[in-house]
Amino acid sequence: MQAVVLVGGFGTRLRPLTLHRPKQMLPACGVPMIEHVIAGLARHGVTEAILSLGYRPDAFIDAYPDGTCAGVKLTYAVEPEPLDTAGAVRFAALAAGVTDRFLAVNGDVVTDMDVTALVAFHEKSGAEATISLTPVDDPSRYGVVPTDDDGRVLGFIEKPPPGEAPTNWINAGAYVLEPSVLDRIADGRKVSIERETFPALAAQGTLFALGSDAYWVDAGTPATYLDIQLDLIDGRRGSPWPAVDPGSTVSPDATVDRAIIGAGAVIEAGARVERSMIGAGTRVGADAIVADSIIDADVVIGEGASVLELTVIGRGEQVPAGARLADDRVPPPDTWPPKT
After folding, report:
1. Domain residue spans in the chain?
2. Where are the alpha helices (DSSP H) in the chain?
3. Structurally, what CATH architecture does the domain formed by 2-224+228-233 represent?
4. What angle do CA 27, 31, 36 make, to 5 degrees?
5. pLDDT single digits (tens) 59-104
6. In terms of Cα–Cα distance, which of 55, 63, 59, 57 is closest to 76?
7. How would you classify the pairing of strands 272-274 and 289-291?
8. Predicted TM-score (pTM) of this structure
């Protein structure tokens, strides 16, 4: 089966990590997030991933020069302009010559959802499109999908006000689509699959959904990006991943507790790193503290500095000795370049 993977977004909520690269190319325990996504698809028989590209397409093309990722053939479809979710799916599918049933997935969702079961349910129900669903505590940030007992979608409510959602089952960002869906998507303009395409299919009774409580994280924010890595080293997704890269150097007088330490990183004596990600080549100075934060590659954290409360430090930055940062961004947002 072919899968369209949507990876064209700017990753604005993850800035400054995404100032110069797409969020799907950010590392998760040393492996780009896109590889986690595609490896999951490969386990369910996907043999070709069509990457719907927008922001910095060169990052993907340069990273996989042989045209494969996690053993899956890659096809690149670079949007001439942002086309929103449905427009991007249509553009990528047509560019790759898709003529049969196919998958479409959000490239920033890391999940253990059973894609094989989703496809089987789709076929059995005779649906034109089938949505995967996942339960959440607060559905107001997502697209809520009420269904009948057969799984037929009764409506598609995008980001309902808090407390007004009819269900806590939300759109999990993975779809099985018949090629006829492409004919429903207008050409030459932005089209939202959540606000236009799916509501139209639901109104005609051809949209179905299947819920799953499998592992699911939308890695679009610093908090969730850190969560997926802590989950990997904690073994929430099978065997625990290594937390400390063998190519890093951690002083015997340093403390590293539930943290990801990248290749070539140096943690000096007396430093404490907790529940954080330390990027490749970063140096954490003596007696510094990094807790609940994300430090990109090639950063220098000065001696005795404190980096706390989901602070995010961009690639190559420096934190002065003795500085204290909490819930901060380096470089600061007022210095960020416009989205291009």
Report:
1. 2-224+228-233, 242-335
2. 33-42, 57-63, 84-95, 115-125, 180-183, 198-203, 222-234
3. Alpha-Beta Complex (3.90)
4. 100
5. 999 999 899 999 999 999 999 888 999 999 999 999 999 999 999 9
6. 57
7. parallel
8. 0.92
